[in-house]
Automatic annotation (TrEMBL):
Native organism: Rickettsia argasii T170-B
Record-given protein name: D-ala-D-ala dipeptidase family protein
Keywords, comma-separated and alphabetical: Cell wall biogenesis/degradation, Dipeptidase, Hydrolase, Metal-binding, Metalloprotease, Protease, Zinc
Reaction catalysed by this enzyme: D-alanyl-D-alanine + H2O = 2 D-alanine
Top-rank taxon: Bacteria
GO molecular function: D-Ala-D-Ala dipeptidase activity; metal ion binding; metallopeptidase activity
Keyword match Hydrolase: yes
InterPro entries: A_A_dipeptidase, Zn_M74/Hedgehog-like
Length: 40
């Protein structure tokens, strides 16, 4: 992950965040598709 510009969170070793996050104060809400093949 660090090789691809992510940095490890200090509190939880399994969480990472983008080092140069362009949208630090913005949240996104996306619908999740049940069938991955339908979005190809």
């Amino acid at each position: 992950m660090q090789k691809h510009n992510f940095k490890a969170c200090k509190i939880e070793w399994w969480h990472y965040e983008l080092a140069d996050e362009p949208y630090k104060d913005q949240y996104f809400n996306f619908d999740i598709e049940k069938n991955y093949d339908s979005i190809k």
